[in-house]
Amino acid sequence: MIAPLFSGLALFGLGEGLLVLSHLGATPWTVFAQGVAKHAGISLGWATALISVVVLTMWWPLRERPGFGTVSNLVVIALVLDLTATSIPAPSGEISRWLFVAGAVIAIGMGSALYLTTGLGPGPRDGLMTSLHRRLGVSVVYVRVTLEVAVLAIGWFMGGTVGLGTAVFAGTIGFSIGVWLQGLEWILARATS
Description:
The protein has helices spanning 2-22, 28-40, 44-62, 68-87, 94-116, 124-136, 140-157, 164-192. The longest helix has 29 residues, at 164-192. Helix content is 81%, strand content 0%. It has one domain (2-192).
């Protein structure tokens, strides 16, 4: 389970970095991290890790327990996001920028599918979402949307990049995760038959 965990988290961080490099927007939490990074004078990866630590402290009153995957999520995604954003040149043409957005959706979809199948603990943000859902008795959909819109708005206000790529990502990531989860189920079924 360790290899799928780390592979999935690395792909997730790579996808986050590609979306940032497209300069067409970022995921809501990364928009927030961009704002924090800008005002704190730290790298995007460090801002992402810092936000994850703060989100984890919110678990305590909700009685959520982190797992090995939770801590790995915090470290690996932040490191790979930072590495991607600082070592891969940003695309210059419009087509290249949109290819980065497509690559981000594919990488994050595949990474999420791999990570979710390990069962080694939710990521900091997912754990907060599911804990609030259980504690408040509010649909997970509403909790997720509220959290995502709040961090997106705060991040944008702080100088994070929101753009058409943000909207495209939001509209396609669920489909990408679903496709990759089905693909993994098919592979596992073939391997065990």
